[in-house]
Amino acid sequence: xxxxxxxxxxxxxxxxxxxxxxxxxxxxxxxxxxxxxxxxxxxxxxxxxxxxxxxxxxxxxxxxxxxxxxxxxxxxxxxxxxxxxxxxxxxxxxxxxxxxxxxxxxxxxxxxxxxxxxxxxxxxxxxxxxxxxxxxxxxxxxxxxxxxxxxxxxxxxxxxxxxxxxxxxxxxxxxxxxxxxxxxxxxxxxxxxxxxxxxxxxxxxxxxxxxxxxxxxxxxxxxxxxxxxxxxxxxxxx
Amino acid sequence: xxxxxxxxxxxxxxxxxxxxxxxxxxxxxxxxxxxxxxxxxxxxxxxxxxxxxxxxxxxxxxxxxxxxxxxxxxxxxxxxxxxxxxxxxxxxxxxxxxxxxxxxxxxxxxxxxxxxxxxxxxxxxxxxxxxxxxxxxxxxxxxxxxxxxxxxxxxxxxxxxxxxxxxxxxxxxxxxxxxxxxxxxxxxxxxxxxxxxxxxxxxxxxxxxxxxxxxxxxxxxxxxxxxxxxxxxxxxxxxxxxxxxxxxxxxxxxxxxxxxxxxxxxxxxxxxxxxxxxxxxxxxxxxxxxxxxxxxxxxxxxxxxxxxxxxxxxxxxxxxxxxxxxxxxxxxxxxxxxxxxxxxxxxxxxxxxxxxxxxxxxxxxxxxxxxxxxxxxxxxxxxxxxxxxxxxxxxxxxxxxxxxxxxxxxxxxxxxxxxxxxxxxxxxxxxxxxxxx
Lengths: 238, 437
Hints:
The complex is a heterodimer of chains A (238) and B (437). By secondary structure, chain A is of the alpha/beta class.
């Protein structure tokens, strides 16, 4: 939404407004109940594409500020009959993730970020041992790279502005194509909302380089696949 | 969801919140008897514990009988069942009956997994309504995710959440959002976070007038631990009104009303007993005892029965000026935190103000060093700030020894460490107040 101040968003009547999350560089993201419902439908497709069996235990790690992305995912997981445990996606709460993975047959940890990888390392653990009992780890791009360097074969998720893209089990990063258009423009990925949302987006520059394809994926999702190009490799990380 | 035509009352749920104590007891008894039958069917831990003393849920027909016959459990009981039966849920609920898993904070030992059932428990909505949240309001929700989707409580009062991490890195965003959206409640702040906010203000890192930021807030819920004098002073300087808040035996929570005279528990969802910490006899009102909690909503909440929380509280059922008849609690510490020096019991709360009275340790970060309940010396690790050109630490130590001796009658051994060292022991909203070494 070039030229618009995302902070000065129009307020919705209280009955329609689910709440405010965040996106981009700490901007407020107003979400309506309809948005959450649509995002939950999208998350259902994303979780289905992971191929988890019924009653699997998943640990969803998120910070409160990112609940706008993860609440729909959690709702979808519960709707599918998965058993959800919550932990904070922070260095201090990796002990809780460790406890869940030690005590329970956790099928997936979804939402690992850099802070958690930092926490694992600060405690003297190596990520490979930490996640050794977990068949599926889903980490954001940067954390995913660091985990890969440590020998953890993680799937990825990415926050592309207001949109959450999640890998399927075939490692393709999907964006919900019913709600969002995504295209590479001028070297970066831009997203636009296709349906009415509390805050509409029109060619929002995610600042991330990448490519988009509409290839058919074996996972069954017919949503666009994005491939992220990172500006900096893992070896350049400070 | 309450409508905009809701009568102008302080209570969201007036019939429950102002219920006559005798009527409340009958109400609790009915709910308890239903709950016991449910728990026996769904919780292997309790059916085993009760069976071991020849007790069935159907044997209990009154609250009096319940208090006389039903055995206690605590976190160790759950951990022991977990180990003995290789059951990660500690027998609290069968995995098939759980729809989500929560866990304790872990500040007092290995965390315990709490299986949450199907349905909605009684939330914080009543407390928030009393503070002044109304339909259409924004609630700044500044917390963690590990307790599950508590942000949905906002919808129960027709409000909406504005979501922030419980971390100083969010203060700039929170200030901007507060000025923009004018929230009426901040849930939650904690002592460490308030002091971090004050530090950022004084260092010129926040380009906002904090009294303007706080101007829309009708209340700031304080979680984590006791609110120290310095943190309270800073919050009140900005115009924030603190409302103390605590857990009730991992079953519910309790929050101050606008009278600020004790924390109200929602007794329609939890049956509370205040007992001798070393035994099972009730302690009198206004006395300190251990809080023992029984969930009256085990389908949706943690299915705990006569759960000894180790939390020490003063209590009263005297009517409050707010009109609520629910039990009020005044937390004083945790049973496991107590040390006894030459027959003299000391809790962290007993030395808190003494530590705060010394300028270098006014943040109130300290730990009792506890090698056992009975000790020959009072040992305290105290966090301090380094002031350029400040006093020698020997002088700070002397002041602390003097202040604590005045407070508890025992001259302590003091170990001084930088504040940051203790803060790293988080979770950020509190630090462990007792350490083994």
